[in-house]
Known about the structure:
Oligomer: single chain
Number of strands: 0
Distance between the termini: 87 Å
Number of helices: 4
Helix content: 40-55%
Radius of gyration: 32 Å
Structural class: mainly alpha
Amino acid sequence: MTRKKAEVPEAPDTPEDGPPGGVEGWPDAGRRAALVVFAGVVAIAFPLVLFHLGAYHWFHRDDFTFLTQRHLSSLDDLFRPHDSHWSTVPVVVFGVLWKLVGFRSYKP
């Protein structure tokens, strides 16, 4: 017994046939709409995250606390842990460099 081969319809060769469903130009319009929605979400979310949600987390537990909240003349400041780590040496190094060089610019 021999089987007949099933006939498979051929794919359209020309762009004039359009996408299935008869909506002309639909894939490009969908991509453009998705891009516009994505750009809108990013435009709203980026400043919100940057300025509102992250406002109190910049420089949190940073090395600048060695300069702003510690003094070389205080034993408590020298031996107080920084984020639960002993940090006498970094406090002394930062303090000495601050006294010798200062901090006026980020430029080398």
